[in-house]
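Consider a protein example.
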Amino acid sequence: FSLNAGDRAALVGPNGCGKTTLLRILAGQETADSGTITSDLGLRVGYLAQGFSDLPENFGVSADMSVNEVIGRAAGDPRFLEPELADVSMQLAQWPDDGDLQTRYDDLLNRISTADSGRAASILAGLGLDSVPDDLPVGRLSGGQKTRLGLALVLLGNPQLLLLDEPTNHLDIAMLEWLEEWLARFRGAALIVSHDRVFLDSTADRVLAMDPLERTVTEYAGNYTDYEAQQALELQKKGSAYHDQQQEIRRVKQDILRVREQAAGTEWRASSVSRGGAIMAMKGYKDYKRSMAKGVAKKAKARSRNLERYLDDEERLEKPKRRRDMRLDFAGTPHLGRSVITLEDLSIGYDPAAPLASGIWRSV
């Protein structure tokens, strides 16, 4: 598939089929086992990983950096970038042919020259981060705040290709609506992974469906609802075509069996002729019947070979594979007692070493 400026593609598929791996490959964080990826030189890729734990890895953010510094560096604030620019400039004076240093220098200069404090403030407000103290270390942010900070850093990077892995996590309704409006104005290409079907309906104009059973990616026009309708119709057509094919195969097999039985009967009648209880060999008649039997047998063999070639043909339809969806039925569940659930010394949170709450005891 290809992604072009203005595209809003949703990447969908069952859990574990490789959506995140594909995004990481496109972002350059993993290497593909096979195939090729072609992109414009210098393409600015913004990748939001799933989960706030990847924030340091993806953005070079340390836990002791303040929120103000992190945002300022992403937004191109000269206060935070000019010291780094001066350092890179000194290194370039010593190694003027170093391409990586030159690229880094150009990137810093571009970020400073295009800095827009109003844009940064709008993004922070839209994601509910404007109330976070500027001097608060990033390591002290909650999981939801880290996820939203990561999204803000991606958007502030002015990407040309936007790769979003579950961007709606930790966003309330107002933030979701803001992100939908932001994506509607975004001029680059976006590839979005999300379990929020309403969000995909509002943002995607085509769907890339990963099928782990067929090992394919199929493109569908429209949003997620359109994709579901097209997929259901496609599965129905495949099922009907496969059913028709199986009926034709059965018809051909029955025809081959009938011709073989006809050849065997002709051969048997050619071997002898009964007249008045006496068996009289009739050479001319027998030769004629044997010739007929051989012709019929040859026809049966030819049809068998044609059937074998058809069954081995790559274009032969395979039986449509269906994913098994989990279904739960709680009808007629017996009453088990007064307490539906009992919590004993429960801890909740993301980091076992620093839970959000612990020592919870309760019977409901």
